[in-house]
Amino acid sequence: MAEDFELSTRTIEFPRAHRPESAYQSAYDLLARRAPEQALALVEKALEEDPRNTGLRSLRAWAFLMRAQLQKAETELVGLVEETPDDVWARHALGRVLERQSRLREALPHLKLAAVMSGDIEHELDVLRVERLLLTDDGEA
């Protein structure tokens, strides 16, 4: 006998999560659990108190990426890369955002620089993927 069951989820509450110092960890945990909407709400509140906080701004960009809000992610990441050119995560994420928008030629320099700065094989694979896409798209890299 089949019965209909209604499943619901509880809202995750984080005490004092609106403060920048605790909002970062709470939002990071939410993003790691694939809950970008809740993380974004925490980050936005914390950024009202500390709008220049690069850690919180990075989390906001990550949340935008997870929600496929690519223009918002790009805007945030461009600002982060301009302020801190050696931020490997922001540089790589900017390359990925541009790639997801099919802006391969713009993405490639960011991906290459992130790969060189990090030495991460995953970053190198991203470079190779974009180079191959460029080759198949128009015959040149």
What's the number of domains? 2
Q: Approximately how much helix is present in the residues?
A: over 70%
User: CATH topology of the largest domain, what is it called?
Assistant: Serine Threonine Protein Phosphatase 5, Tetratricopeptide repeat
The assigned CATH architecture of the largest domain is Alpha Horseshoe
Question: What is the CATH class name of the largest domain?
Answer: Mainly Alpha
Overall average pLDDT: 89
Alpha-carbon Rg, integer: 18 Å
| Strand elements, count | 0
Q: How would you summarize the topology of this molecule?
A:
Layout: H1 20-32, H2 36-49, H3 54-66, H4 70-83, H5 88-100, H6 104-118, H7 121-138
Helix pairs in contact: 1-2, 1-3, 2-3, 3-4, 4-5, 5-6, 6-7
Describe this structure in words.
With 141 residues, the protein is mainly α. It has two domains: 16-67; 69-141, Serine Threonine Protein Phosphatase 5, Tetratricopeptide repeat. The protein is built from seven helices and no strands. Helix 6 (104-118) runs antiparallel to helix 7 (121-138). It is globular, with a radius of gyration of 18 Å. This is Tetratricopeptide repeat-containing protein. It comes from Microlunatus flavus. Pfam families: TPR_19.
